[in-house]
Write a structure and sequence with these properties.
With 223 residues, the chain is α/β, with parallel strands linked by helices. The protein contains seven helices and eight strands. The strands form two sheets. A six-stranded mixed sheet has the order 1-2-4-6-7-8, sandwiched between helices. It has a two-stranded parallel ribbon with strand order 3-5. β1 and β2 form a beta hairpin. α3 packs parallel to α4 and α6 packs parallel to α7. The chain starts with a helix and ends in a 5-residue tail after the last helix.
Length: 223
């Protein structure tokens, strides 16, 4: 009997750990909710409700990079996000497949979110951000880490202008407009305060956070 009890406990712990690993929920810069999906299952909505913090957020990021899962679970997950009142950004990459692709497509069809990421032959992003496959894997493990320097190579015609692009974020551009008097919303005129926290190095995730912060400045929540 004792051996059976130990076996049941071990199996229960394994299943709980597996289910917990199906998704991870974190807060970025204190007010952006990131839901990183590894495996989309029929339990997605209930898992997310249990894991979501009570903090007020300005938007959500559904990270479907390297995610797969059950296509049959996509409708319920789509409904969950479609009913939320905050902006949504969906992240995809070349490894997004199966149920994760179905979820991304459903959310875009429902007008519930914008898709950002690298080109995928199964789902095309609304905003493409070119990232090497090796770096995508690197940033998924730690979005704050700095990758190894890229060796100097000849630039192709499609990316030769990139070293000269002003990489100012969307949020910075909006703040600049406010400072220059193009927006008279007093609630948005607070000078930028540099956060005392790590900088997101993941270019896809950083783009999503900047977009949500810019939307929050342009459309502040009404109390």
């Amino acid at each position: 009997m004792k051996k059976c009890a130990v076996l049941f406990l071990a199996v229960g712990s394994f299943l709980a750990a597996s289910r917990a690993a199906e998704l991870e929920v974190t807060l970025l810069e204190t007010n952006v909710l990131r839901v990183q999906v590894n495996q989309l299952t029929e339990h997605f909505a209930e898992q997310l409700r249990a894991a979501t913090p009570t903090n007020a957020v300005i938007g959500s990021i559904l990270d479907l990079r390297a995610a797969n899962g059950d296509p049959g679970a996509a409708p319920a997950a789509t409904e969950y996000f479609a009913l939320r009142k905050v902006p949504l950004v969906i992240l995809v990459d070349g490894q997004t497949s199966s149920g994760a692709v179905a979820l991304a497509k459903n959310l875009r069809a429902a007008g519930a979110g914008l898709i950002i990421g690298s080109t995928n032959d199964r789902v095309q992003p609304d905003i493409a951000v070119a990232v090497r496959a090796s770096e995508e894997s690197f940033f998924l493990k730690n979005p704050y880490a700095t990758p190894a320097p890229i060796p100097a190579v000849a630039l192709s015609a499609t990316n030769s202008f990139m070293p000269y692009v002003d990489h100012t974020s969307e949020a910075d551009l909006v703040r600049r407009r406010v400072k220059d008097g193009e927006d008279t919303n007093d609630a948005s005129s607070t000078p930028r305060q540099e956060p005392g926290q790590p900088v997101i190095r993941d270019p896809v995730l950083a783009r999503a956070v900047d977009l949500l912060k810019a939307l929050a400045i342009l459309h502040p929540a009404r109390s």
